[in-house]
């Protein structure tokens, strides 16, 4: 083979590898987005179906609030802690 053909084929396989890597990254991002949307839908469904008032006991007192507030706050705190744990690991 000529040197020109080898360089052309070399460049072509590199482009294919980049395209495959990009597809893999996009697939992972899509899966992550779908999972986040599914989790958000579950949290919203739980919050909508649990509207009664509850008492939340803290170390230094208690608070009366709706159960949906407790569910949404717990999910938000869990998401932030999970993000921080993953960020620290990376």
Major sheet size, sense and barrel closure:
2 strands, antiparallel
Question: What's the arrangement of strands in the largest beta sheet?
Answer: 1-2
Shape designation: elongated
How large is the radius of gyration? Answer: 24 Å
Number of helices: 2
Query: Which range best describes the helical content: under 10%, 10-25%, 25-40%, 40-55%, 55-70% or over 70%?
Result: over 70%
Q: How far apart are the termini? A: 45 Å
Strand content range: 5-15%
Strand segment count: 2
Round the mean pLDDT to the nearest integer and report it: 81
Query: Element order, helices and strands?
Result: HEEH
Oligomer: single chain
| Poorly predicted runs of 5 or more residues | none
The helix/strand class is alpha+beta
Kindly describe this structure.
This protein is of the alpha+beta class. The chain has helices at about 5-50, 65-90, and strands spanning about 55-60, 60-65. It has a two-stranded antiparallel ribbon. Strand 1 (about 55-60) and strand 2 (about 60-65) form a beta hairpin. The chain is elongated and about 55 Å long. The model has no long low-confidence stretch (mean pLDDT about 80).
Key terms:
alpha+beta; 90 residues; 2 helices; two-stranded antiparallel sheet
How is this fold's topology laid out?
Layout lengths: L2 H47 L3 E6 L2 E6 H23 L1
Antiparallel strand pairs: 1-2
Care to give the gist of this entry?
This protein has 90 residues and is an alpha+beta fold.
